[in-house]
Write a structure and sequence with these properties.
Number of strands: 57
Largest sheet: 6 strands, antiparallel
Shape: elongated
Distance between the termini: 44 Å
CATH topology of the largest domain: Neuraminidase
C-alpha cells in the first residue's frame, strides 16, 4: 500500500530535479543534492500526493511512531525548512512546496513519473511498526465461577484505569486531594512537597516603541493571535512562523477570544463616528464585536457595542462587556450575534472583568470591583455566575486582584494579584482549585513571580498552556520648552530617570524646581527636583498616603493631603503645609471628603478646595486660608458628581475655575469656564480631543493647557497637549504614542512645561507546567 498512488512509482522528475525513491537520491541537473532522511520522506509524500494536500498530521504519522516523544510541530517545521533548502525554495515565494497554515503542504509543479528504476524496489512507506502484542496464557478456572471472575476482573481493570487517569494526572482535582497526593507519592515516588518546575518563555519580542495591544492563545495551544501598531498577526507557538492576518483597510481590531476550531476569532474594533455636520473632526465610538478568520475574508459584525468577549467552550455562545465605560454590564449572545441579552448590571456601583467560562460551559467566573468605594463592595472579588438561574457564588475576595481570570479543564481558577509595596506595579498569577459551582476547595497557590502586570490571560482547551501579556506602565516626567508663539513645544526630554511612577503637580515660584509625587520608595511621597539635576530630593515621606503637592500663594510653602485609607470618602483627611525648603509640617484643614485643592499666585490670595459630600449629588467647593481658616462655599450646585472626573484648575489670578464638562469618553468633551466674581459660566468645545486626562492654567491666566487622548483605537492611541485660549481658539501643541502624554504643568515664568508621560512596554509569554 502507499500514501497516495502506487509504490511502483519509483522515479520522479520535476523542473531540473530527479528523485529516486528506491535509493533516496535527489539530483539536480544530474548532480546529487545532499538531503537528510526526514526531508526526503516529506518530499516522497508530496510527490505521491499528485498535487493534493498532505496534512501535517499525515506527515507526523509517517515520520514518527506513536510512542515517539518529540516536539512534532517543531520537527515538521524543521524538516520542511531543510527540504526547501535542498530544493532552493522559499516559504515566502514558494516555487515547489506551498504551506497552507495549520493544514499542511502541497507540491506546486507537475511531476513526471518513471515506473521502474533499474529493477530495484522502491522505498517502502514510512509507517510505524506496531510492536507484537504479548501472548496471554489462559488460567483454568472452574466453569461455575468463571463468569463471576471475569466480571470482577473487568470491573477492577476499569476502576484501575479510571483511578489511574485521575490520580496520576497532576491537573485533575482528584489527584490533589490528600488521598490522591498520598497514592501518587507511594505509587510514583513523587514527593508531595515537591512542586513542578514552571516553564516560561517569551512568545514575542516587541521593542518599547511598539508595545503589544492584545493577544490570545488558540484552544489547540498551537497559535498565538496578537496585535501591535503595525497590524494583526498569527504566530506558531512552537515553530515561531508568523503571518499577518489579511484584513480590510482601516479595520484595526483587537483579539478577544478564539472559537473552538482555532481558525476563527471574535475581535473588537473602535470604529470612527463623525461629529455633527460642520465639525469636521472624527470621533471614536464604542468598540464593536466582529468575527474574523485567520485565513482572511470579510469580517462579520456580531454586536454594535462590546469588548472583553469570550467564546464558550462549545462555541455556541459569547459573553461580552459593555456600558458607559465598556465594562459595567455583562451580556450574552449566540455565536452568530443573535439573541443578545444583558445578564449582569453593575450600574454606577461596580464594573466587571472579562468572563472565564467553566469547562462545561454552564457557568462563568468574572472579577467584580467597585467604582470608587462603598460598603457594598469593599474589595475586588471573583464571583461565579450561572446564566440559566442568575445565581452567583463568591469564590474569593482580595483588594489586590487583577481584572482577568481563566478556568482550566482541571477545575483550576487562575487569576492575577498585585504585589505589595514597593512592588505594587507588578502582578503575578495564582490559582485555586474550585468545584463546578465555583466553591474553593483549597488555599491559593502562586504560579509566577515576575515583574510587570499580568493581563490578557488565555488558556488552551487542554489546560496545558497559558498565555499572558506582561505589560509595564511607567509614568515619567518630561520637560519641554514653550516656543515663542506660546503654542508649539520643542521635543520633550526625560526628566525623572527612575523606573517608578512619577506625577508632576507644581513648580516652585522661581521656575527652577518641579514638585511631584512618586512611589519610588513605596507609598506616594513628595519630591522636588531642580531642572539641572538628575536625582530628586525627598520633601515629605512617611507611611501615610500623600497627595498632590501645590504651592501657597506666596510660594513659600507646599500644601499636601494625607490619608491613611485609599478611596474612602468617609475617612478623615488632613490638609497640611510644609516649607519649600523643608522642615516640620503644620495642619491647615481636617475633615472627610477633601479631594483637590489649589491656590492663586501673588498678588492674588484665593485658595479653593473640593469636598465630596455623600449627602449631595454635587461636588462642593470652599475657599480657605492656608493659615487654617475655612471660608465660604462657592459654585454650589454647579458641578454634578461624575461630570468632571475631579478635573479642575484655578487660574493664577484667582478669577476663573475651569472644569471638564463630561467624563464619558463618548460625549463631546468641552471646558466649562466659571467666572468666580460674576458667577457666570461658559463652554469651550474640545473637538480635537477624545478624553481629557488633566489640565492646568498658563502662567498669564489667558489660556489652558489640556492633555489627554486624541482618539481611541486598537493599534495605538495618539495622545497630545492642547492649548485653549479663553477666546476659544484651540491648537495642538504636541502629540505622542509612547509615551502617552496625559497633562502639562506650566512653569510660572511661562517658558517650560512639565509633562506627565506614560511609557508602556508589553510582550506575550507562554507558561507551561503550572
Amino acid at each position: 500500500m502507499a500514501f497516495y498512488g502506487s509504490l511502483r512509482r519509483a522515479c520522479a522528475r520535476f523542473d531540473s530535479f530527479q528523485v529516486d525513491l528506491s535509493s533516496g537520491e535527489l539530483l539536480r541537473s544530474g548532480v546529487c543534492v545532499p538531503i537528510q532522511d526526514q526531508p526526503f520522506q516529506i518530499l516522497r509524500l508530496l510527490l505521491q500526493a499528485d498535487g493534493r494536500v498532505v496534512t501535517r498530521e499525515q506527515v507526523r504519522t509517517a515520520l514518527w511512531p506513536e510512542n515517539t516523544f518529540v516536539d512534532f510541530e517543531h520537527g515538521v517545521n524543521t524538516a520542511v525548512k531543510k527540504l526547501r533548502q535542498a530544493l532552493e525554495d522559499s516559504a515566502e515565494s514558494p516555487k515547489f512546496v506551498e504551506t497552507l497554515p495549520r493544514i499542511g503542504y502541497r507540491f506546486l509543479v507537475p511531476v513526471e513519473w518513471v515506473p521502474e528504476t533499474l529493477g530495484r524496489n522502491p522505498l517502502p512507506s514510512v509507517v510505524p511498526i506496531t510492536p507484537p502484542k504479548p501472548t496471554l496464557v489462559p488460567t483454568l478456572v472452574p466453569a461455575k465461577r468463571q463468569w463471576k471472575l471475569k466480571s470482577a476482573v473487568a470491573l477492577a481493570i476499569l476502576a484501575g484505569i479510571v483511578s489511574t487517569a485521575f490520580l496520576f494526572n497532576e491537573n485533575s482535582g482528584l489527584s490533589r486531594t490528600p488521598l490522591g497526593t498520598w497514592i501518587r507519592h507511594v505509587a510514583l515516588g513523587q514527593n508531595p512537597e515537591r512542586q513542578r518546575i514552571l516553564s516560561q518563555r517569551r512568545l514575542t519580542a516587541n521593542p518599547d516603541d511598539t508595545p503589544l495591544t492584545g493577544g490570545a492563545i488558540s484552544p489547540d495551544g498551537k497559535y498565538l493571535a496578537f496585535t501591535d501598531s503595525s497590524g494583526f498577526y498569527v504566530r506558531q507557538v512552537d515553530g515561531g512562523e508568523t503571518h499577518a492576518v489579511p484584513l480590510p483597510k482601516g479595520f484595526e481590531p483587537l483579539p478577544e477570544s478564539w472559537f473552538p476550531d482555532s481558525a476563527h476569532l471574535v475581535v473588537s474594533w473602535f470604529g470612527f463616528q463623525r461629529n455633527p455636520p460642520g465639525s469636521g473632526h472624527p470621533r471614536t465610538g464604542p468598540p464593536s464585536l466582529w468575527k474574523i478568520s485567520v485565513l482572511g475574508g470579510a469580517p462579520r459584525k456580531l454586536a454594535d457595542e462590546g469588548s472583553g468577549a469570550r467564546v464558550s467552550p462549545d462555541g455556541s455562545r459569547i459573553a461580552f462587556l459593555t456600558g458607559r465605560w465598556d465594562n459595567e454590564e455583562v451580556w450574552l449572545m449566540a455565536a452568530d450575534g443573535s439573541d443578545a441579552r444583558k445578564i449582569l448590571d453593575g450600574g454606577k456601583e461596580s464594573y466587571f472583568g472579562p468572563v472565564a467560562w467553566a469547562p462545561d460551559g454552564k457557568r462563568f467566573a468574572t472579577v467584580r470591583a467597585a467604582n470608587g468605594s462603598g460598603p457594598e463592595l469593599p474589595n475586588k472579588r471573583i464571583e461565579v455566575y450561572d446564566p440559566a438561574t442568575g445565581l452567583s457564588e463568591l469564590s474569593l475576595s482580595n483588594p489586590r486582584l487583577g481584572d482577568e481570570v481563566a478556568w482550566t479543564n482541571a477545575g483550576r481558577l487562575i487569576y492575577s494579584v498585585h504585589e505589595l509595596e514597593p512592588n505594587q506595579s507588578d502582578s503575578n498569577l495564582w490559582w485555586t482549585q474550585i468545584d463546578p459551582a465555583g466553591h474553593s476547595l483549597g488555599p491559593p497557590a502562586r504560579i509566577t513571580s515576575d515583574q510587570a502586570l499580568a493581563s490578557s490571560i488565555s488558556v488552551s482547551a487542554d489546560g496545558m498552556r497559558l498565555a499572558l501579556l506582561r505589560r509595564s506602565y511607567e509614568s515619567d516626567i518630561y520637560l519641554a520648552e514653550i516656543a515663542r508663539d506660546g503654542k508649539v513645544l520643542t521635543t520633550p526630554r526625560r526628566f525623572t530617570l527612575d523606573e517608578r511612577q512619577d506625577w508632576p503637580t507644581s513648580w516652585t515660584r522661581d521656575s527652577d524646581t518641579v514638585l511631584f509625587l512618586s512611589d519610588r520608595d513605596g507609598p506616594d511621597h513628595i519630591f522636588k527636583q531642580n531642572i539641572s539635576d538628575t536625582q530628586p530630593e525627598l520633601l515629605v515621606g512617611g507611611n501615610d498616603i500623600r497627595r498632590a503637592p501645590r504651592l501657597t500663594p506666596d510660594g513659600l510653602s507646599v500644601l499636601y493631603l494625607v490619608t491613611t485609607k485609599v478611596d474612602d470618602p468617609a475617612a478623615e483627611l488632613r490638609l497640611l503645609r510644609i516649607p519649600v525648603s523643608g522642615g516640620p509640617s503644620q495642619l491647615v484643614l481636617q475633615g472627610p471628603g477633601i479631594t483637590a485643592y489649589q491656590c492663586a499666585s501673588l498678588p492674588y490670595t484665593v485658595c479653593i478646595y473640593e469636598q465630596v459630600d455623600s449627602t449631595s449629588e454635587y461636588y462642593r467647593f470652599f475657599t480657605f486660608d492656608p493659615a487654617g481658616t475655612k471660608g465660604t462655599e462657592i459654585l454650589a450646585g454647579k458641578i454634578k458628581k461624575g461630570d468632571g472626573l475631579d478635573l479642575w484648575s484655578l487660574s493664577p489670578n484667582g478669577k476663573y475655575l475651569v472644569a471638564i464638562k463630561s467624563q464619558n469618553p463618548y460625549d463631546e468633551p468641552a471646558l466649562r469656564i466659571f467666572d468666580l466674581a460674576a458667577g457666570t459660566e461658559r463652554s469651550i468645545p474640545l473637538l480635537e480631543i477624545g478624553l481629557a486626562m488633566g489640565m492646568d492654567w498658563a502662567a498669564d491666566s489667558k489660556s489652558i493647557w489640556v492633555g489627554g487622548y486624541l482618539g481611541r483605537g486598537a493599534w495605538g492611541t495618539r495622545s497630545g497637549i492642547l492649548n485653549v485660549s479663553l477666546a476659544g481658539k484651540v491648537s495642538v501643541a504636541t502629540k505622542g504614542f509612547n509615551p502617552e502624554i496625559w497633562y502639562a504643568i506650566p512653569s510660572p515664568d511661562g517658558r517650560r512645561l512639565a509633562l506627565m508621560g506614560r511609557n508602556q512596554t508589553s510582550n506575550m509569554w507562554l507558561v507551561e507546567n503550572f
